[in-house]
Structure formats: structure tokens, C-alpha cells
Amino acid sequence: MSGLIQSVRGMNDVLPEETPLWQAVEGTLRGVLEAYGYREIRTPVVERTELFARSIGVVTDIVEKEMYTFTDRNGDSLSLRPEGTAGCVRACLEHGLLRGQSHRLWYAGPMFRHERPQKGRYRQFHQVGVEVFGIPGPDVDAELILMCARMWRELGLEGLRLEINTLGDAEARRRHRADLVAYLRAHEDALDADSRRRLETNPLRILDSKNPDMAAVLAGAPRLIDYLDGEARAHFEGFRALLDEAGVAYEVNPRLVRGLDYYNRTVFEWVTDRLGAQGTVCAGGRYDGLVEQLGGRPTPAVGFAVGLERVVALLEGRREAAAAERAPHAYLVAVGEGPERAALGLAEALRDAVPGLRLAANCGGGSFKAQLKRADRSGARVALLLGEEELAGGRLTVKWLREPDHAQRTVTREEAVALLRALVAGRGSPGAA
RNA sequence: GUGAGCGUAGCUCAGCUGGUAGAGCUCCGGACUGUGGAUCCGGCGGUCGUGGGUUCGAGUCCCAUCGCUCACCCCA
Q1: Regarding the domain with residue range A328-432, which homologous superfamily does it belong to in the CATH classification?
Q2: Cα angle A206, A224, A229; round to 5
Q3: Which of A225, A237, A322, A390 would suit a FRET pair with A368, their CA atoms being 20 to 30 Å apart?
Q4: CA–CA distance from A17 to each of A20, A61, A190, A196, A319 (Å)?
């Protein structure tokens, strides 16, 4: 055990016990995205490092110290993507998708950040993300919120809280940031070490400090909301009105800030208090300036990303149920030389005759007892027994593994096919066997 | 990057003040020549994370190192 090679720190295996829950989550999210007319885009996991530096921001933690960056054989600096938006914008620009038309897109896949792992935070993690290009109004912002709400509903995820805020436009943010830094510098002796460091890196975060000693100073700090111009203000009011109209509950959190530089105007987060320190399950906002910043024409854009590890963690209680939904319908037991030789062919014939059938055929021999044990553990609803007697008579014995009140019966292959069809259709009437 | 807690069988863990490693679950087999999930019996399975030190003797004490977990930071 000590000599074995282990997985890379912070990069986890998802074992077969767990994959059914992941598949259920992914399937549900995909269904919702399609219900809103969003189309999937797939982009590489590796991009030029410069793409992330120019989009996320050079001085952010992500770019400064969390990227997996390496030099390609030809000398280019490449990085594993730490988030999905930059690559998506790059792909759209590269293929001319942003000329005039609007696009509603989604993607899913692994992201990489070299952080210290902890609950809900991993070095390889998975996101489902959405990006909308070319629609400036608050109606899409609201649509994204409604889409999220539907995702939670269909997943059966309860207790998520929606927090929203507006960051205004670039100009307002610049003025506010300058005033804020000046104000905080004037009170620098009242700041703790962390906050002094953040004066350089992320001054907005200082407002979010949990240190009670700084509360008085922070209360007097310039507020971003006072810097908003009329248009940004109207956008936010419009967004809120649409949420109210739709009956979505939310909370305005003026201290809600996004870590990535490119956000402006609407930002939002869906949070839970059931995941320890990493309570954000989904976050997003508007980034109207990013496309231009990456060399395209000015193009309004909004998006969000869902952290799949966090969603799966919240749904952990449904692991068994999800696994049961994907278990085989039937397990084919074959004992004896003749039956064992005939089993694979019979299994093929049954799969041909019953579309959608999930049939596990026993391999590796074993006694009746051993094979039934495997059948039981496979989660199958019925065991199909093929022994010398059945083989000689062209029949199969159907044994119900989950319904103790249904006796096993030996039937013709045609009857077995009919029964399996009913099982697959979900109207399995076990008594009919 | 900083701090704290924890590393004993595939999994969950016991092992008191140092005396030469155990249980439950899983898996395989038997009781039951073609019948699983219950019960009983048996079997497989361990360089006690790794390296060094103290000692007649270290799973136990000391040091280092690696790993895991949680928190800070940051964020999905």
C-alpha cells in the first residue's frame, strides 16, 4: 500500500458507487438547459496562459498563484483552465459567432486551480456553466436566475439562498475603488494585516472583513452604490422588478463581490450553510466588457457556473436511490457446461429483443449459489436462470430478487421477453410472470 | 502560502501507564449436489504512512518527512 502511486493531491476519483448520482445531476441540469433553448459548446481544457491573464485579471489570486501553468515544447506558456468563461469567449471570437447574433450557450467539464484542498474545494473540480452573448437587458439576467431556480427544484435541492448585487459599470467602479483605497489608506492604522495586504490586491474584499475591530471604519467607507450612474441603476432596478414579478426570493448583499475582474453590473450567488466554509453552489454575473477586452467588438454578456462537487455533496443522501435507477433490470445466471456456452448468445438475443434492457450476464462461472449472490449484489430486479433443464426445454426460470411475494416461474423465451419489456417500460407487473 | 487535528487489514475502528497486532463489515468457501438477501462455522487479508532516534524490547515515547482532513486565505 505504501508503494502505490496515489492520485494527485486535490484531484479525486469518482467511484462507481458515486457515479449514478453524478449522472443524475448532470442529466437533470442538461435537461433544464435544453428546456430554455441553450446550446452546448465544448472547448479545450488547455489554453494559452495569456488568455486567462487578460480576462480574469493579472493581479487576482487565480492567475497569480493558482494556475497549472507549463511551457509547451515550442516554448508557449499554456495553462489548464481555471474557469470556463475565458475559453468560451475565445472560441466564439475565433469562429465569428459574436457578429450580430445573440447566443445562449452552456458547457460542462473539469477546471483546475492549485489551491489548498478542503471541504468543497478541490484542485480539479467540475462546473456546468452558462454564457449568454449579445443581450444587454436585465431580462436575460432574470432568466438565468429562473433557470437556476428550476435546476434546484428539479434536483430537489432545498435551502439555497439567493444573494444579488450590482457592481455598476467600469467607470463607476474605477472612481469608487480610487476613493475607497484613499479612504482606507487614511485609516490604515485601524486595518488588520490581511486588509492592508488587500489594499493592493482586492480592496473591495476589505469591506467583507469579519474582524469586528474594523466595523466602525468600514461603516464610514465610500459605498459603491452611491457611484452608480442612471443606466446601471435602472438595470439593477429592472432586474429586481423581474425577480419580484416571478416571485423569486432574494437578498441584496451590497458586500457581494466577484473574484474575477471582468464582472460588471449584475452579480449573484446561490449559497448554502450546509457545506462548511465553501458555501457557494453557483455564482455568476454580467461581464459586458470582456469580449472587447479580448479583442472583439463590444458585446454584452452574462453567465454563471455551478460547482458540481458542491451540488453532489448536498445531494449525498440520494446516492442509493440514484444507484438503484441505473442498476440492471436482470442478471443472467448460467450453470453447467451447455448453459454457460449458450449464455452470451442468449444475452445478446434478449438485448436485441428488448430495447433499453439493462442485462448483466454472469461471467466466470460459479455455483448457482455464487451466481445468485452476484445477481443480488448487482441490484437487478430479476435473475434469469439457465440450467441444463431450461436449456433443454428452450425455457428460462425467472426469479424475483426484490419481491418476496412473487414466486419464481419457468417460462418460454417469448414469455421472458414480454416480461422484460414490461420491466423496462416501468410497468413491471411481477405477478404476471 | 499559514494553522490545527489525524495516519493500525479493501472499509469502519480497538490496542490502558512501551512486552512483539485484534474486532466488525466486505470478499471466498462450507452447513444447504440447481437458489441470493437471515443465522452459524471456517478461510484470505497487515513492511502498524515512511525514515531515523531512545530502549533489552516501539503500533505505543522523541525527531524528521510524506499523506489525509478541516479552517484561514480564496472561490464553484
Answers
A1: Anticodon-binding domain (3.40.50.800)
A2: 160
A3: A322
A4: 7, 35, 52, 47, 8
Look at residue A213 and tell me whether its pLDDT is greater than 90.
no
Whether A258 CB is under 7 Å from strand B:
yes
Q: In the CATH scheme, what is the homologous superfamily, with its name and number, of domain A19-169+229-318?
A: Bira Bifunctional Protein; Domain 2 (3.30.930.10)
Mean pLDDT rounded to a whole number for chain A: 91
Mean pLDDT across A137-149: 97
CA A47 to chain centre: 21
Which helix H or strand E contains A132, and what residues bound it? strand A124-133
- pLDDT of the residue at A188: 83
| Contact (CB, 8 A) for A289 and A262 | yes
Residue A368 Cβ under 7 A from any strand B atom: yes
Instruction: Specify the higher pLDDT residue, A365 or A236.
Output: A236
User: Which segments within A316-425 are labelled E, that is strand?
Assistant: 330-334, 359-361, 382-386, 395-400, 409-412
Q: In the predicted model, what is the mean pLDDT of residues A372-379?
A: 91
Residue with the three cell numbers 494527485: A8
Delimit the domains of chain A by residue range. Answer: 19-169+229-318, 328-432
Q: Does residue A177 reach within 7 angstroms of strand B, measured from its CB?
A: no
Whether CB of A369 is under 7 Å from strand B: the answer is: yes
Proximity of residue A409 CB to strand B below 7 A: no
Closest residue (CA) to C1' of nucleotide B2 is: A116
pLDDT at A284: 95
Answer whether residue A391 shows pLDDT above 80.
yes
Residue A225 has pLDDT above 60, yes or no: yes
